[in-house]
Amino acid sequence: MNTGSDVLLAIKMLEVGIIPYDRSFSGSQLRAALNTMDALNQRLARRKFRKRWKKIVRSFKKSPHIYDDMKRATGVGLNESQLTNQQRAHRIYLVRAELAMHVHQDLKNARRKN
Length: 114
Prior knowledge:
By secondary structure, the protein is mainly alpha-helical.
């Protein structure tokens, strides 16, 4: 994505209530960003992120083999201490890719109107 799309993606993340992040963000950077928020907003941002990635995983229910792979890859049902870094990264990737797809669609629709 180019810089303009990255900005639109960050705005989209803010609109849906999650902390804007880039592929280069590490877990510690995301935690530091969360720590700048008060406890209530931290909880809300985490919850919105969790709801978003769970919705993405559920969207694969029609394909049982893909759905099972997605559940395993993202660690559905595991608590925080049981998650691997790879499962966390997969969750982050899924949410970012889904929002990027929405930004791309929004840009395409805006171009059609002009």
